[in-house]
């Protein structure tokens, strides 16, 4: 089932999410719905707060990035095959010189800005079977994970922008929170009762 994606301005997006256990109600259905919702909106990641649930769960599928012809064959293959579920994740290390990449977010449609992040991360998480992992990722995969991880920490990519950039996009962000935007996927807006 395709769920509405929560728009910028909803308090759930600014809340630090809580851990879950393997007896979380209807967990398999939730995962299926989140993947379906993400693919329907052409996303490469989706965090539970973006569908209104303040829990430490996000998923990533970087396969759309694998079609970038500027990447090496090895990078394309790595991105094509990367699909993961992250539960109760904790980034334990970020390394390297920060680099900029133009990011967007399904909760903040039509706003894209360069965000600086470190290129390499180590993360502890549980997979969809609640099996524990500690892994290190770099490049675009690390970046997508960092972006989704921020969601479960109550942080949006717009929070990482300079105060000048924030002022420049303030009007657009206000319009999104009021539902004054055209999107081709279901959204739930904080300042209006009507659902799309």
UniProtKB/TrEMBL annotation:
One Pfam family per UniProt: Pep_deformylase
Essential cofactor(s): Fe(2+)
Coiled coil (UniProt feature): none
Keywords carried by this UniProt record: Hydrolase, Iron, Metal-binding, Protein biosynthesis
Active site: 148
The enzyme's E.C. designation: 3.5.1.88
Cofactor comment text: Binds 1 Fe(2+) ion.
UniProt: Fe cation binding residues: 105, 147, 151
Catalytic activity: N-terminal N-formyl-L-methionyl-[peptide] + H2O = N-terminal L-methionyl-[peptide] + formate
InterPro entries: Peptide_deformylase, Peptide_deformylase_sf
Record family assignment: Belongs to the polypeptide deformylase family.
UniProt-listed PANTHER family: PEPTIDE DEFORMYLASE
Summary of the function given for this chain in its UniProt record: Removes the formyl group from the N-terminal Met of newly synthesized proteins. Requires at least a dipeptide for an efficient rate of reaction. N-terminal L-methionine is a prerequisite for activity but the enzyme has broad specificity at other positions.
Protein name: Peptide deformylase
């Amino acid at each position: 089932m395709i769920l509405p994606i929560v728009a910028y301005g909803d308090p759930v997006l600014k809340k630090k999410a809580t851990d879950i256990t393997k007896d979380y109600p209807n967990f398999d259905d939730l995962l299926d719905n989140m993947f379906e919702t993400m693919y329907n909106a052409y996303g490469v990641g989706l965090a539970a707060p973006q569908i209104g649930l303040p829990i430490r769960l996000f998923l990533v599928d970087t396969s759309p990035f694998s079609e970038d012809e500027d990447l090496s064959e090895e990078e394309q293959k790595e991105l094509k095959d990367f699909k993961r579920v992250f539960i109760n994740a904790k980034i334990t290390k970020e390394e390297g010189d920060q680099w900029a990449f133009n990011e967007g977010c399904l909760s903040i449609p039509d706003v894209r800005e360069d965000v600086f992040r470190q290129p390499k991360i180590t993360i502890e998480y549980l997979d969809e079977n609640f099996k524990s992992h500690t892994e290190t990722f770099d490049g675009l995969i690390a970046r997508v994970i960092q972006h989704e991880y921020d969601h479960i920490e109550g942080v949006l990519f717009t929070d990482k922008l300079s105060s000048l950039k924030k002022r420049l996009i303030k009007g657009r962000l206000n319009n999104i929170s009021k539902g004054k935007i055209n999107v081709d996927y279901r959204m739930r807006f904080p300042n209006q009762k009507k659902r799309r």
